[in-house]
Each structure stands twice: as structure tokens, then as C-alpha cells.
Amino acid sequence: MVLILSLAAIALASVAGGILLWQQARQRAERTAATSFIQHQIEQRHYSTGGATQLELQKQHVWRAGPANWNTFLLRAGILPTAGFYVRLLGFPLLLATLAGLLSGVMAAGATLALAGMGCCVYLCMKADRRHRKAVEQLPDFLENMVRMMAIGNSLTAAFQTAAGRVDEPLLEIMQRANAASRSGQELDIALRQTGRQYGLHELYLVAAIIGVAIRFGGRSDHVLERMAGFMRDLTYARRELVALSAEVRLSAWVLALLPLGIAGFIIMFNNALFMGMWHDPAGWKLLIGAAALQVIGSYWLYRMARLA
Length: 309
Known about the structure:
- This protein is mainly α.
- It has 13 helices and no strands.
- The chain starts with a helix and ends with a helix.
């Protein structure tokens, strides 16, 4: 029984690893397209304006890592770590595992628990990714509101504070956090950098660079912010185009990776005698180990293909 549970845990861990790998592959592909687009735009400005600073070129490579800890991950997902949240997060997999154990036995309970826990993690990852996408799409409108406030005579800081109250969630929460840090005595550009680091919103680094230059050296920052709004819209369109072009490859990779695991889980839960017969047979045991190894190798290669697509 211990060996059976171990094999089921390995299979479910492979499912979780495959899903997380494809999620990272999609995000990495989007970041690669965004980086290429930014570099292309900066090079064009370099030739048209006489050069770009090395700091601007380095900002493209700042945001490679994920959240630093669990609380940061929940912050990006827009979830408050309350007692009720943890009760729901742990209670739902335990409830499903209990029902599966009563209906199909201990092994089905373990498989259901692992699968439900993996599903909760994937749900949180997808929720954080949706909030990030929506915040990026709201940034151009926020910058245009700042430009309108500055056009009627407001200062840069006052325009930021006014525009920060006229956006919707999730950007409202992000801007309110940056605004609160600015009101506490911190420089606005530094507050934007720290907030962008917390939420994984690297576009705020570009906004912070413009605001920092305007605060320290002056200049027509409203024109730069207006151009930045258009630039971010073009960047959003480029990301959507990349997702649309790679949708077929990513969907095929998901199906090819999850279909064998789904069939194996179905057999374990509804025809456990067949699986136990293969497990106790020497040749069947070797076939099961070989299938698990091929599944891991195939998932890795599919991940590489999806990442390059």
C-alpha cells in the first residue's frame, strides 16, 4: 500500500509540475516578447534622439523572479490571508479526499487530496496572473488621467494622487499603496518601484523612471507620460498577438501531457485491481516505472516546445 501511494504521489506531482511548467512557459514567452518589443523601441529612440542610457537598457532584465514568499504571492493574487481563507483552502481538498476515501479507499483519498491541493495552487496562480494582466491594461488610462490633470495646472504629485483615485481594481489597490507610501514621506518614484516589486508589475519601473527624472530635473513629463501610455497599449497588443499565435501549441501540449495522467488516475480510482495486478507482476512493475519516466521526459520536452513557441 505504501508503494502504491508513493507511485500515485509521484504521478500527481508530475501533473502539478507539468501545469506549473506550462504556466511559467507562457509567462516567460510573454516576458520575452515584451522585452524584445521594449528593446526594439529603445533602439529606435536611441538612433532618433542620440542615445539611451545604460540604466534604461538594464531595466528590461529586472523582473525575472517570482514572488519572494507566500504572503507576496497572496498579495499579487488579491487575497487576504485570513483564517477563513485558510479554512477554505485546506477544507475543500480534505472534504473531497474524505468522500473519495469513503467511496473508493485509501489510495483514492490520497490521489484526490494531492490533485485537489494542486488544483488550488493552480487556481491561485491563474488568479494572480489575471490581476497582473488587468492592471497592465489599466495603466495607459491611468497615465492619460495624469496627463489631463497636469494639463490643467496640477503638479506631478497632485496629478498622481488624483488619478490614483479614479481607477478600478486591481490597479486601484496598487496605486493606493504607492500613494500611501508617498504620503508617508517617501519619494514618489521610490514608492512606485517598491510597489511594483511587491506586485510583480515591472511596468511601474518605467513610470517611476519618468517621474523620478521629472521630480529631480524637471521637463515636459506630461508629453513623456502620454507617449508612454501609447507605448504600453502597443505592448499589450503585442502580448495578445503572441498569446493568440501560440494558443494551438500550448493547448496541444496541455492535452498531450494531461491525457495519460488522467487515464492512469481513472484506472486507479475505478479499476484498482488492474493496477494492483500490474504492480505485483515483475514485468508490469517495470512497465509502470518506464511509463512514469517517459511521462516526466515527455512533459519536459513539451514544456520546452511550448516555451519556444
